Predict the structure.
Amino acid sequence: MTWAAIVISSLGCYLLKLAGLSVPARWLEAPLVQRIAALLPVALLAALAAVQALATGTHLVLDARLAGVAAAIVALVLRAPFLVVVGVAAAVAAGVRAFS
Amino acid sequence: MSEAAPWVAQRAQILRTSLGVGVATGAYGLSYGALGTSAGLSVVQTCALSVLMFSGGSQFALIGVLGGGGNAVSGSASAMLLGARNALYGARLAPVLGLRGLRRAVGAQVVVDESTAVALRYEPEGVLAARLGFWATGLAIFVLWNLSTLVGAVLGNQLGDPRDFGLDAAAPAAFLALLAPRLRGRSPWLTALAGAAVAVAVVPVVPAGVPVLLAALVPVIAVLAGRSR
């Protein structure tokens, strides 16, 4: 039963990914779709960042993550490179957790 | 980075970003592996999910239900609901990646949050940069996620909680860093703020994975409303 669930849901997840990549190019050529596609990454990235900073399952939780993300924003404003931004976030979150 | 920047330097920057994202998220495989075996799955089953499903959120959902003695059908359903956003990512990436045949079949497996985020980060710098970001991030995460799953499944919780190392803040920071270069002008800022607000607002009322899907409606509504005005 466990193996059946593993194989069937893995196949389902794979087919979802494949279906997306298989959307015909001409569907995406309409000017309206192009304008949506141009803004879509901004909405997705902002949503991913916000959800991962604030959500634990289906609950909103304010914890040391937020301090780490705030430090990352400061690093971004100071134009720090990508790895520095990520490292600062982890270090500050770990520090806040260790001392709280 | 301007278009005039040498490809070698640009390539190195993209690979560093990809590897950084891979390490930050791959480390979560330790938690997943430990959780999988403690939920009652065998080491082989836990690792098989990381290879076959390769979608962190979906995997956590499935083992949560199976481990809790829940219905396998509802476990599969929530795993696929969480995986639905990968279809959206795939559709957005399709014209950028231009994959056919075997490459599409292989590439599909690594269409996840992080590979999409890095590909789209570098999309303004050209198709080649976006494709390199997608494949490098996808490969880095696939290797590290599966390795760390195995280590976590075998060692259990002996390695400690990734949160003690602040890794739960590294993931949102990485997404913010990938977002930042796109925030030029009023309309990207409004879209970002609205997308984040929508996603956070619905977290308590919809299943995990759905908030990001609903945030995708923000640009749809904004563009349609702008047209009818």
User: Anything to note?
Assistant: Chain B touches chain A through 96 residues (CB under 8 Å). The CA atoms of residues 221 and 227 of chain B lie 10 Å apart.
